[in-house]
Design brief:
This protein is an alpha/beta fold and 196 residues long. Helix content is 31%, strand content 19%. The mean pLDDT is 97.
């Protein structure tokens, strides 16, 4: 039996963003997620999807903002070390801003909101690592500040976790996070092909 989302109950628009009229926010596509202790399940496919999304956004003239997490020296998120750098497949080019954050919501303690306001787009397209953490929190943060997020599912990935002694697979966690976003915070599309 289908359930009614909070978005539907509140009469929120379910139309996905248009790339040319949006700001693309790419979250934490850092090397730490492709190997070692933080390696995500399905990262390669998600990274390929993100590269395709980025290419389309650039071709459409969208504003692109890259977000990275800095955990400090010696951590898997040290942006001064190779492990913390943005993967070459989605590396920024000249003119694309890079926002450095230290919280799952990329708006906390950063200039991301000011960059979005400067770009002048209410719609934002969001994709990144990890689905259940920084993607979900940043999509919620965008919604709460008045933006209209669209999250691209196949360009996101996460890792398995345990909860109260029960293993939660990466696929379950990924889909759960997307369902949470889609319930209120934003439109979820399966791939960038759904974006006009």
């Amino acid at each position: 039996m289908p359930t009614t989302t909070l978005r539907a109950l509140n009469g929120l628009d379910e139309t996905p963003a248009t790339l040319a009229a949006s700001t693309l926010i790419l979250i934490d596509y850092q090397n730490t997620y492709v190997r070692g202790v933080m390696e995500l399940e399905g990262w390669r496919e998600a990274l390929d999807a993100a590269a395709a999304l980025l290419a389309r956004a650039r071709a459409a003239g969208a504003t692109v903002i890259h977000v990275i997490n800095d955990g400090g020296a010696g951590t898997p998120y040290d942006v001064r070390a190779e492990i913390g750098r943005i993967h070459p497949a989605v590396a920024p080019v000249e003119g694309e801003a890079v926002v450095v954050k230290q919280a799952p919501d990329a708006f906390v303690g950063t200039g991301l909101g000011a960059l979005l306001d400067e770009a002048g787009h209410q719609d934002v397209v969001v994709a990144g690592f990890m689905t259940h953490m920084c993607v979900a929190f940043t999509a919620a943060g965008a919604f709460l500040r008045g933006n209209r997020p669209t999250v691209v599912a196949d360009a996101c990935a996460t890792r398995p976790l345990a909860s109260a002694g029960t293993r939660v697979t990466a696929a379950q966690l990924h889909r759960s996070a997307l369902a949470t976003i889609g319930d209120l915070y934003g439109v979820v599309v399966e791939s960038q092909a759904a974006l006009s």
